Protein 1
Amino acid sequence: MNDVSAFAPRPAHIPDAAVYDFDMFRDSALLADPHERVRQLLREAPAVFWTPRNRGHWVALGHEPVFEVSREFDRFSSEFMAREQMQQMLAMAPPGMPYIPQSKPISLDPPDHAKYRAPLASVFGPKAIKARTDEIRALANALIDEVAGQGCCDFMPSVAEPLPVQVFLKMMGLPLERQAEFRRMVHEFLGPGMNEPMQAASRMRMIADAIDEVILARKDDRRDDLISLLWAAEIDGKPMTLETMEDFAVLLFIAGLDTVINGMGFGVRHMAANPDFQARLRADPSLIPEAVEELLRRYTFTVPTRRVAKDTELGGWTLKKDEWVMIYLPAADLDPSVFPAPEVFDLDRENKTHIAFGAGSHRCLGSHLARLELQVLYTELLTRLPTFRLDPDKPVTFHAGNIIAMDSLPLRWD
Ligand code: HEM
């Protein structure tokens, strides 16, 4: 069996001092209290380290190397395989092998990246997203009202999951009744093995298979949704093909179905543990947009990946072509050299520039949508529920990997 959690032997160019044993999927301290473990990593591990877990990879922890890796695409590529390797693989593929979607634009480097980002820009721009406010508010209210009378709920399945998932499926034009199936596929995609090219390829194909029916239906029957809009776009003056549509759809699917959920989970957990903070926001809701930003910094939760494009130096170590680097954004936002007392949630913090949405050319395209959903949810939750707290009898649970995700958030209120 292909054991992706296997220990890799330390390559000769990596000195002992660069090694720190960290399993980003299974580390028990990370799963118990994610951001406390991230702070421990910042204290104990080098700012850039190599771990033998999960086939061996680098981790950029510190604020400076995180920005360096995020921005310098000629050294740290978003392309899953070197182009020549990809061409070889495609040449060897048996005839009739199904197309493997590339999740564009996130898996492209400049200059190609910009061509594939452009068709999405207007749909995710601030104006288009703002127009969705009422729809998001109505959905948030319906979900909160369903649990309000119960005095308790598990916030993740009751509100944090269905809200952004339904907003996104509606935007895409995908059927709401299949949301549980779609979420399961994204969970599997992001689970252990996602950094292993063959596994990732078959998981991406599976997602494309699940949405092809809708993609094909929209080709000749355009509606007011993102899939229809993408069919109308051109890339390099050429019309869309089914393959390019799958490239876009697979990425949006992954980005849209497993991100905001966790932002909501971490934000609401912080509120539940801090009733004074709830009171402050209830008394002055104009603080909510700033609270959203500081919560995103305090509990940053995504970990993008890069492939080393050519032998290079980072954090004092030599990295070899085709090694993997995890950009540990949650650590960069808790780096004490940039954010004094980083563990303190502080609305009056001088430096408010967090990296929760990434940096460089791939900076999150969905940030306006994510921010709006978080702001609307917090506003409505604080209006419709009395002071809520963590359920002392039930633990908050997590899973981890390229997303540090919350599975369960049991809450109580009077
Ligand atoms: C709080 C919620 C979210 C967080 C923290 C987040 C975070 C990120 C990060 C860190 C990146 C950069 C990845 C990289 O450098 O490789 C990214 C890219 C991206 N995100 Fe988000 N995201 C969120 C929500 C969303 C939503 C709701 C959507 C759309 C429905 C979305 C769509 C995208 C897309 C399309 C990209 C790729 C952009 C490119 O390659 O140019 N994101 N996101």
Protein 2
Amino acid sequence: MASKQTNSKIPPDMAVGFIGAGRMAQAMARGFITTGVIKPGNILASDPDQRMLNFMQNDLGINITHSNREVVEKSDMVVLAVKPNVVSPVLQEVSPTVSKEKLVVSIAAGIPIGTIEKQLPDGTKVIRVMPNTPALVQAAASVLAPGQAVEDCDTELVTELLRCIGIAEPGSEKLLDAVTGLSGSGPAYAFTAIEALSDGGVKMGLPRDLAIKLAAQTLLGAAKMVLESGKHPGQLKDEVCSPGGTTIAAMHKLERGGFRASLIDAVEAATLKAKELGQS
Ligand SMILES: NC(=O)c1ccc[n+]([C@@H]2O[C@H](COP(=O)([O-])OP(=O)(O)OC[C@H]3O[C@@H](n4cnc5c(N)ncnc54)[C@H](OP(=O)(O)O)[C@@H]3O)[C@@H](O)[C@H]2O)c1
């Protein structure tokens, strides 16, 4: 998780609003607050569900309202954190309160920037973000894409904010279907790998709890080594495969089973599905 940077792009009293106070909004707000980049008193969230608002207020110290328009009026940056099917009605509702100074950040999966821009006043700054579920444990992988009116400093600001909940990389909208196929859907592939590895452990005599813990920590540790060492994953794999050893014997089985091709196919299938859904 990133800590507060000295050359921060984030104004000290920046006001952030969340329309929708569900899981993603809570995760993002927690990240902003715990890293100290946004004060809880400068965050306002709206939601029809009072339980969500109570959590925001009681656990995070955030201001709450039932009015989406109030969120827009009082915020420099507004995060659209509602389900994709609610985005259009929300945009129609808040559009009269959106002005050019405000930054609108959408995390709604599959809603193109153009669709959002069309429903807001001309020149509105819109940034689309594709985060993933590990945002809930402050370990998200996010890619963000700027809309037409967005300036570099806006993209830098949102990138810095997203780094409070994991890694974040600026990109362009044409990458987002593939991002969905890799990191958006990727947690499901990793959960399945953890489950299958633990099945292997159980088959060979380990208790289930221990097997799941070992499998999960092994993926976490391997991922940390890739991110922190800067080494290519193939090199790290080679370093674990000693000649005539156990790991290379297992690698042979994985190759025979089409392990790599399955993962490539999975990312391709999810990307094509995201593209198809985006067009419909
Ligand atoms: N969860 C993830 O891992 C993930 C990953 C990538 C992207 N996303 C995107 O993030 C967005 C939010 O996902 P989430 O998992 O946080 O959903 P969520 O937990 O269901 O939160 C959405 C919240 O918005 C509220 N809401 C519904 N209509 C509203 C309205 N008109 N005005 C204000 N709030 C309204 C919902 O209330 P009700 O429940 O009462 O309807 C709910 O509390 C989605 O668009 C999703 O595609 C999520």
Protein 3
Amino acid sequence: MSVSANKVVHPQTNSVLAGLEPAVFFGFFEELSAIPRGSYNEKQVSDHIANFARARGLEVYQDEIWNLLIKKAGTPGYENAPTLILHGHTDIVCESDEGVEHDFENEGIKLRLDGDFIHGTGTTLGADNTVGVAFAMSLLASDDIPHPPLEVVLTVQEEVGKGGAQHFDGTKLTGKRLLDMNWHDPKSLFAGCAGDISAHFRIPLQWSERPNGQEAARLRVSGLSSGHSEFDIHLERANAIVLLGRLLRLAIKEGDISIAKLEGGVNRYVIPGEAEALISFDRSVSGALRSKIEAEAAAIAAEYSTSDPNLKITFEEDPGLFFSVFSEKVATGAVNAMCLLPNGVQSRSLIVDNLVESSNTVALISNDQERIEITSTIPSAVSSRRYNIVDRIRQLSEVIGLGASVETFADCPEWPYNPQSRMLAAGRAAYEREFGEQPHVEVSHSSLELGLFRKKVPDIDMLSIGPEAFDVHTTRERLNHTTVEATWRLLKALLSELRT
Ligand SMILES: [Zn+2]
């Protein structure tokens, strides 16, 4: 059975999106939104789409973690055109506002329409990437849109380290061109991204007995602007772990302090906005130590007055009882690592204006009884630069000694910007044909799933498009439904360009 993409194909009771155009897209968007589909919970949505495709006589491959590959032949005149891979991901980020009880395991998203925007109700919307899946289903359901042979790949676990794309069997693909539909700006084409890798820097802990009669304090850096470690790195914001390291070095030099605990950061993709240390020191140095830290804090506040106007450094006495502290050598080694690990922008692109090419964010610090662990995330558009930064981190562990070691994980390749790309040329031509002007071309310092497809399909040529969405991954996530029509037109025009 096939249906026309120009008709309302999913009349729904209690539909929130009825009446929005293109109706076929919003029908699928609403249908998908009703299915719970957080990361690792994609079986139901995967089965739903597989059944939808089988009902249309399409070839479906579903792997054991519920990634999908659906094949559809080219339309008349496009039978022998180069195959196009269409890509989106089925999982969504599940966040809810404080006080909102939402059972993401079993409940779909309650859509809410407010002017030009579709929102969730106290939750993420999941437009990232329901949009891509709904466009793919709209094309699979169509019989009047010219397109080349399609291989629709819908991955799972994108939001939790790109697990679906890592797992997906690339040998099932014959296409060498890929169109992704997880971009958030209808006025631009997305044409390249960085890869990234993360690294744990570990120092085994040796403990000493805390000297009797010492005073203690919690030294705390907070109120920083924080932000995403890849999208916001060019803003030169302060890093709470690095600043804490700077203050601790001063405290060791001036006050001979010991350290009992280190803690900071949220996750490996967030510039840490808070970090703190529990410290112990002799009563006799207390006053001098406090005034040295206050003077340094004032200098730091002035340095970061533009990027981090709410930065706060506090020295709270009486943080509670403790009896052991890090050995002197380990404390010095840890503070050296906090200060000397590469951090922030490392290089900028000379091809794309205002693009950071390589960076590092010292994102997390913690300790347990056994060790101190500092986690960095290193995005770069150039693999060799990414691995060179990792090697410098390793070199630092060798210089520090004390059994320090580095373990890397989550290595994801880049998708390098190629001004000669056929997909980019077709995207530009389609955009100009539809809208009478040139699109912007965007390249990002963030690492996307698409990098992994380069590893699976060498020489793959990729492009990404999408309607306007804001604040994805947060409960403020919203989709501007008035921009979907333009993206749908661009998508159809682009498909018709890809006859050769
Ligand atoms: Zn996302």
